[in-house]
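stage 2 :: seqdesign
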């Protein structure tokens, strides 16, 4: 062969083409002919412990549901733990993230124990966070009475980058709903995923968050919502991706390992902190001081994950707008990922012009765990403040937590993760929805409105009295430039640049502000 007759691999165009062909040929596809047996919420709950415990207080408040907000991470963990332990017939859960850390592993162990005592357990996980967890999920799914499905899954279980590159439009749609429903009579919904940072058990990161425990008819409504997702074409049984089945030895080994983890967990500082919480001393759910109220449960339908431009009746956002429109005097918005866009920014400014007091709490640059979100948010910060919106950004240096016991786990960094609103100091919205493009366009979300005058007024009053200790108030100086005001150790601080950040962090965020498409976050 002459030197001029080079091998094909030396031709850049041919080399790129060959690599692309090999890459695409390696891409996996979703399973065909999925064996997806439909199942639905169990309506017959007579005789269960939760029914016996709660039915009298539910009967005393006809056509109402009872709501109990969960602010402390330890309380949120205790409540879920107790519901799982007390369930006798059915447990339905859907979550965006479920970590395999201390609290996540303990809760997964309790699901396995519930299934062993005959409870039907259905667990629906968004597939974005399941990378590397398939071995555990498959073992759990192989247990009697326990079934696991993943929502909008990655076809390639071992190399998800392939799906991200070749199936981006589909993979970008995620299920962000977070619910746990026990025996069709009690449910938890809100902002928390399952993991240490959500339950005040992480020494590095603490998420300030909110859930609501609800009992009564709303639980059945949440169950119907769960059924829509569980039986959706986007929900795949985890076993459909594998030909082999876990063995009985695999299942037995899981139980042995999980039991050992439970014994170790009982001796941790977190266990001691949980025991100090008031809710840990409550023996029956009927003893809690519920706010009995009408409610409106709102959620995106799973068809939102189809892509394209869905009909309005598929979407949660229009129902959220109706609540915002109904506020007459006062609107308090808590949103960790806050990218209002031009239209919603103008809307909030107009609400102020109409005489409605608007207060917003979101993350500061340092407390935000997704800096690109902050880059999108700062595009609208000046306009909001100039328009009369009272804007606050959470500090990242908060070690202490309200109502936590002396053994509470202290974290190096604080971050806001709660997503709720207070309207006219009378009613609340609690849910998973962030005020950003991702929640509006790509993620499915869920939340509920309910009346709780005492809780709503308390949240509003506490915000005014305490927020300056925990957040920066963003305001204008005499020259019309932004400044940040807070109170640390009783001393007021006034800063003229992004608080507690380095020059590099500020430059990086400023660059992202210019280039990042905000609707992706």
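stage 2 :: out
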């Amino acid at each position: 062969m002459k030197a001029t007759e080079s091998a094909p691999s030396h031709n850049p165009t041919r080399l790129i083409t060959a690599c692309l062909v090999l890459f695409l040929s390696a891409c996996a596809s979703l399973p065909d002919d999925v064996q997806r047996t439909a199942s639905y919420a169990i309506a017959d709950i007579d005789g269960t412990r939760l029914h016996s415990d709660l039915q009298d207080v539910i009967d005393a408040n006809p056509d109402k549901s009872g709501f109990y907000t969960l602010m402390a991470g330890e309380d949120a963990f205790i409540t879920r733990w107790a519901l799982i332990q007390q369930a006798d017939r059915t447990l339905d859960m859907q979550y965006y993230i479920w970590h395999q850390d201390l609290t996540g592993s303990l809760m997964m162990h309790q699901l396995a124990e519930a299934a062993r005592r005959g409870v039907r357990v259905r667990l629906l996980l968004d597939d974005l966070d399941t990378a590397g967890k398939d071995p555990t999920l498959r073992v759990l799914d192989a247990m009697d009475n326990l079934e696991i499905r993943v929502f909008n899954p990655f076809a390639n279980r071992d190399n998800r980058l392939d799906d991200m590159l070749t199936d981006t439009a589909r993979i970008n749609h995620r299920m962000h709903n977070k619910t746990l429903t026990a025996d069709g009579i009690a449910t938890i919904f809100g902002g928390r995923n399952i993991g240490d940072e959500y339950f005040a058990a992480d020494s590095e990161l603490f998420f300030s968050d909110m859930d609501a425990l609800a009992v009564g008819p709303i639980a059945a409504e949440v169950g119907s919502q769960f059924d829509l997702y569980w039986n959706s074409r986007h929900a795949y049984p985890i076993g459909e991706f594998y030909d082999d089945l876990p063995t009985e030895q695999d299942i037995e080994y899981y139980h042995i390992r999980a039991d050992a983890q439970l014994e170790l967990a009982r001796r941790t500082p977190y266990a001691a902190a949980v025991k100090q919480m008031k809710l840990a001393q409550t023996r029956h759910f009927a003893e809690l001081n519920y706010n009995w109220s009408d409610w409106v449960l709102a959620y995106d339908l799973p068809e939102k994950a189809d892509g394209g431009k869905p009909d309005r009746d598929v979407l949660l956002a229009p129902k959220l707008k109706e609540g915002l429109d109904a506020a007459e005097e006062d609107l308090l918005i808590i949103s960790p990922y806050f990218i209002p866009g031009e239209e919603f920014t103008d809307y909030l400014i107009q609400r102020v012009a109409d005489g409605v007091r608007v207060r917003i709490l979101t993350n500061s640059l340092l407390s935000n765990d997704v800096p690109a979100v902050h880059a999108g948010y700062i595009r609208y910060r000046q306009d909001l403040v100039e328009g009369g919106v009272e804007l606050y950004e959470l500090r990242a240096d908060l070690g202490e937590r309200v109502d936590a016991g002396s053994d509470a786990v202290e974290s190096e960094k604080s971050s806001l993760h709660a997503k709720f609103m207070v309207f006219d100091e009378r009613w609340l919205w609690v849910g998973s929805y962030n005020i950003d493009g991702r929640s509006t366009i790509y993620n499915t979300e869920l939340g509920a409105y309910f009346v709780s005058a005492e809780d709503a007024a308390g949240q509003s009053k506490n915000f005014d009295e305490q927020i300056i200790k925990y957040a920066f108030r963003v305001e204008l100086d005499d020259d019309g430039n932004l400044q940040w005001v807070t109170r640390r150790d009783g001393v007021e601080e006034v800063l003229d640049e992004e608080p507690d950040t380095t020059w590099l962090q500020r430059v990086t965020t400023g660059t992202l502000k210019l280039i990042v498409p905000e609707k992706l976050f």
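stage 3 :: structure notes
- The first helix runs from residue 12 to 26.
- Residues 1-10, 15-25 have pLDDT under 50 and may be disordered.
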